[in-house]
Predict the 3D structure of the following.
Amino acid sequence: MSLIALTNAKILLAQADLSGFSNQVELSAEAEELDATTFTSGGYKSLVGGLKKVDVKTSGFWNATDATFPDDRFFADLGVAGVPMTVTPSGGTVADVSYFTKVVRPKYTMGGQVGELFTFDSDCSGDGTSLVRGQVADNQARTSTSTTTVLSLTAPTASTRVHCAIHVLAVSGTGSPTLTATLQGDNAVGFPSPATVATGSVITAVGSQYLTGAVGVNADSYFRLSYVISGTSPSFLVFASIGVAG
Amino acid sequence: MTATVVQLRAGLRTNLATISGLRVMAGFDRASVPAAQVGEVEIDYDKTMRGSTGPLNEYVWQVRVYVSRADDAAAQDKLDAYLTGTGSIKSAIESDKTLGGVAETLRVTSLAGYGVYEVAGQAYVGAEFTVHVWARST
């Protein structure tokens, strides 16, 4: 993969696509350093990785209209845990690297100097959910029952599980459009025998979902989303990612 | 909303045209004064990520206003009237900060270059305004 000039990162928080308002994003993951040094450590510090922490910072230009805009979104989420957040560095083509988790927002700052554009700074922390390094599974408007491209991922182990973050950014149609997403796994790319990993609740409006499978060894290393869509001329703009983590 | 440079320039001309008695030049030809000219532009691309609406760019325009130099004192008075307050270049350009719905916002940030300009071989008294326009492109 070639180097990336960061002009097309995707930054999604619940039902808000913050990309077009943001000019800076920083995603950091760290594990606590636990000192396990003893007299037999050979003269060097001996360290063990402890608890992990995730931080996501975004900055950009303030804007407000509804919950798909930064100010409305950040204010609504202040102090609220469990909000799906996804960051991809390269625009969100299916199978691109995608980082996602669930966050709590402890800090939202807005301001600026006279004459300058009004800006925001947002700090989020992982709410205890793993930071998942996965792949983009979907980035398009879905208008009928369908499945996403099959992704090849590492099969879950004894201590890991499948994760999926789904952002629904726009909904249109009549006759009460609905979308139900099912995360599926299989042990072959042709998906001869799909197994349900998790099924989300019915989606009728913009929003987000976070699906996880059970922890434990699983032979399936191919994953996709299966959508059941109903309504008259329904359209759901979906951005989803799938990955395997603890 | 996204905008082309052509649309932004047209929007600036439209706003300038709201000043009574001020002609807006179409290019760099001889000015029929008093006249305003939407001149050069510099573009700072990618002020935001692309997103679904296109990246935000910052366009820095030079807008010049010219008055007759036939009488220097009268020329200064005429030019000074365009610098601040009602009927000024700043208030006219900022009267519609979206330039007809194609820009996010704009600001006339400064005035400089108060002096004599030559346009198509003719000397005029004039001044130059810097206008920052923020707009998205595809």
User: Anything to note?
Assistant: The first strand of chain B starts at residue 23 and ends at 24. The CA atoms of residues 2 and 136 of chain B lie 5 Å apart. Strands of chain B lie at 23-24, 35-44, 56-68, 105-119, 122-136.
